[in-house]
Amino acid sequence: MTLADLLSECFATDLEETWERERTATPVRAFAVQLHATGCSLRETKEVLRLLGVERSHQAVWQWVHRLADSGHNPPEAKPKRVAVDETAVKINGEWSWLYAAIDIETKLILDVELFGRHGTDPAAAFLHRLSEKHDLSDAVFLVDGYGYQTALSRLGLSGRLDYVERNLIEKWFHTLKMRVDRFHNSWVGSHGSVREWFIQFAQYYNFQRPHQALDGRTPVEEAIN
Q: How confident is the model at residue 15 (pLDDT cuts 50, 70, 90)?
């Protein structure tokens, strides 16, 4: 029995359309993605596959993980009660940009991410406006630090308060993302569009594929739709 035959007994193969041009069997790729979702690094996942007789590169496994995440859907429309929002600096082609992100405190769902060339009140307002077009924020309270968020919230008629405890959740997500960036890339080289797409794919992976310990092993999407 081949590895693909063995794994096909455990993993559904209804993702062939997503990976139709891949030379590695879908059950093997699904198995690799599941390994990575449970906490294995790319290097560890690659080594497990090697022990099973499948030799693939670091980059190939990375592409499987994020192509599967990208084959999902946008986060379900949410009506969050408490939303942590923040930005973090990222260097692209030697220059600084800022990644904005928002997370639902209860479900751990990443509600949106966006990349801007600068930070301050105007980018914060633009990000919050975009967020309001995707989700029902009528009952939401935004947990923010200073840095222009309160002015931006007031400009848009949204409710917010300064918070340096619960909003740590978004900072932890940034930390997770940057750990992955450091592990997968030596540096960000490429267009802002390609970097933005990577961030979107990582958010989809986090929402749809990555089990969350605080949610008893459920993904944020599973928690949000319950």
A: very low
DSSP assignment of the chain: --HHHHHHTTS--TTTTTTTT-SS-HHHHHHHHHHHHTT--HHHHHHHHHHTT----HHHHHHHHHHHHHTS-PPPP---SEEEEEEEEEEETTEEEEEEEEEETTT--EEEEEEESS-SHHHHHHHHHHHHHHS--TT-EEEE-STTHHHHHHHHT-EEEE-SSTTHHHHHHHHHHHHHHHHH-SS--S-HHHHHHHHHHHHHHHHHT---GGGTT--HHHHHH-
Higher pLDDT, 221 or 70: 221
Q: Which of 28, 61, 101 is nearest to 184 (CA)?
A: 61
What does the pLDDT average to over 49-72?
A: 71
Taking Cα atoms as reference points, which of 127, 8, 58, 224 lies closest to residue 49? 58
* % pLDDT > 90, the chain: 30
Decide if 202 contacts 180 (C-beta within 8 A).
yes
Residue 39 has pLDDT above 70, yes or no: no
